[in-house]
């Protein structure tokens, strides 16, 4: 983004849009006084925004080998890349079960709920109906249909697997994490204790991560 003083500010964002979309959709929260988001919030139709031609990142399904169950664990705006992944065929074709776990502090922060509910009604995804389960998590208040503990706690006490009706296992599970760095670090440790390892280029594993902060 080019600021009023002529300087350029860059930030990395994951796209909400499907890979085949003609328009780009991003999900951001305005940080008061933030160097980037405050400027972004003031943009209007016709204003200019700089976007790199090449997309970068490691939160892609090609990080994984095999697997039967895809777990997408997000906090806050970390839901963005998972919305993009779920609008494409690959995840639906590759995996038998998809569990989208979305954690926020208050229910009003849950975003894209209607879009998530409508995914399996899309013509090009209708054949995969029944594969996706949405598991909302609201940590600071009780909300109908939502779990009420942090993702790490829910993994440790078995609450997440009980809600999903599915076991987290190195053999079958492939887990993608996107959210704030603290959530990523803590969840990685909990998963590692279950023998779910970070997937590296030289050592395929069961976990892929991206900090979204």
From TrEMBL:
It comes from Pseudomonas inefficax. It comes from the Bacteria. Keywords: Oxidoreductase. Belongs to the ferredoxin--NADP reductase type 1 family. It catalyses: 2 reduced [2Fe-2S]-[ferredoxin] + NADP(+) + H(+) = 2 oxidized [2Fe-2S]-[ferredoxin] + NADPH. Pfam families: NAD_binding_1. GO terms for biological process: cellular response to oxidative stress; heme catabolic process. This is ferredoxin--NADP(+) reductase. The keyword Oxidoreductase applies. Residues 72-188 form the Oxidoreductase FAD/NAD(P)-binding domain. Its EC number is 1.18.1.2. GO terms for molecular function: ferredoxin-NADP+ reductase activity.
């Amino acid at each position: 983004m080019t600021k009023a003083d002529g300087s350029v500010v860059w930030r990395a964002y994951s796209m909400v849009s499907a890979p085949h979309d003609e328009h780009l959709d991003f999900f951001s929260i305005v940080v008061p006084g933030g160097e980037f988001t405050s400027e972004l919030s003031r943009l209007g139709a016709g204003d200019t925004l700089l976007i790199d031609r090449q997309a970068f990142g490691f939160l892609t399904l090609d990080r994984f080998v095999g697997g039967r169950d895809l777990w997408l664990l997000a906090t806050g705006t970390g839901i963005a890349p998972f919305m993009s992944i779920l609008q494409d065929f690959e995840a639906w074709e590759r995996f038998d079960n998809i569990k989208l776990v979305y954690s926020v502090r208050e229910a009003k922060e849950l975003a894209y709920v209607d879009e998530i509910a409508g995914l399996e009604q899309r013509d090009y995804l209708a054949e995969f109906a029944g594969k996706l389960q949405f598991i909302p998590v609201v940590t600071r208040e009780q909300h109908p249909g939502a779990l009420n503990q942090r993702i790490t706690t829910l993994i440790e006490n078995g609450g997440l697997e009980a809600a999903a009706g599915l076991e987290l296992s190195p053999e079958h599970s492939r887990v993608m994490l996107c959210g704030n760095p603290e959530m990523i670090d803590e969840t990685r440790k909990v998963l590692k204790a279950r023998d779910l390892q970070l997937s590296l280029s030289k050592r395929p594993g069961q976990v892929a991560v991206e900090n979204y902060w």
